[in-house]
Design brief:
5 strands, alpha/beta, 189 residues, 9 helices, 5-stranded mixed sheet, single chain
């Protein structure tokens, strides 16, 4: 079973998955988090922390633990934005799709050694075409894990928020492109 800790910066406490209901902010999401993780059996033994904290411009993000170079086994952090604007933005399906996208990043990270992770991080920050490649690959991983329709719902929500989508435009797939990819995947089966 995936080892998950939900860390609430609101209460400054660590909450295990079984205790999620004590934190109102993410209590409603604990079952969704677990349901999304079930799509990623390869992450069963992976250490993942899910944190809720303030972020300026993102609803969620996934990254290796800051000390990954000094650890034998990598661990990862998925951050969910604490701001109500983002908390209330998604339906459950949309939330699951975007969260599935973040877990897909972890699947991608797991396929890389430390040197490749450093290169990925550097190129992601400074090379827009590389960032697009990473995000498109991540969407493809989420689709391959059965989260395509939920991802479409999440991206449709982002697409409706023009100011939010403006930052993502040109890097992330549009809802129509995601639908085409899902259709292509189904036709190959």
């Amino acid at each position: 079973m995936v080892k998950i800790l939900i860390i609430s910066f609101l209460f400054l406490s660590t909450i295990s998955l079984g205790q999620l209901t004590t934190n109102k902010q993410i209590a409603d999401k604990s079952e969704l988090i677990q349901a999304v993780l079930e799509h990623y059996p390869e992450l069963d033994s992976t250490k993942i922390k899910v944190k809720v904290k303030w972020m300026c411009k993102r609803s969620m993000a996934a990254r290796p633990n800051a000390f990954f170079l000094f650890q034998k086994d990598n661990s990862y952090v998925v951050v969910i934005n604490k701001r109500k604007k983002f908390q209330n933005m998604y339906t459950n399906n949309g939330f699951s799709g975007i969260l599935g996208h973040e877990f897909a990043h972890i699947v991608d990270y797991e396929s890389k050694n430390d040197k490749e992770l450093i290169s990925l991080g550097f190129n992601y920050l400074f090379n827009k075409s590389y960032r697009k490649e990473v995000e498109n690959r991540t969407d493809s991983i989420a689709i391959a894990h059965g989260l395509g329709n939920k991802l479409v719902k999440g991206v449709e929500t982002q697409y409706k928020h023009k100011k939010y989508w403006k930052r993502k435009k040109g890097v992330y797939y549009t809802p129509s492109k995601l639908r085409k990819l899902i259709k292509q995947k189904k036709s190959k089966l």
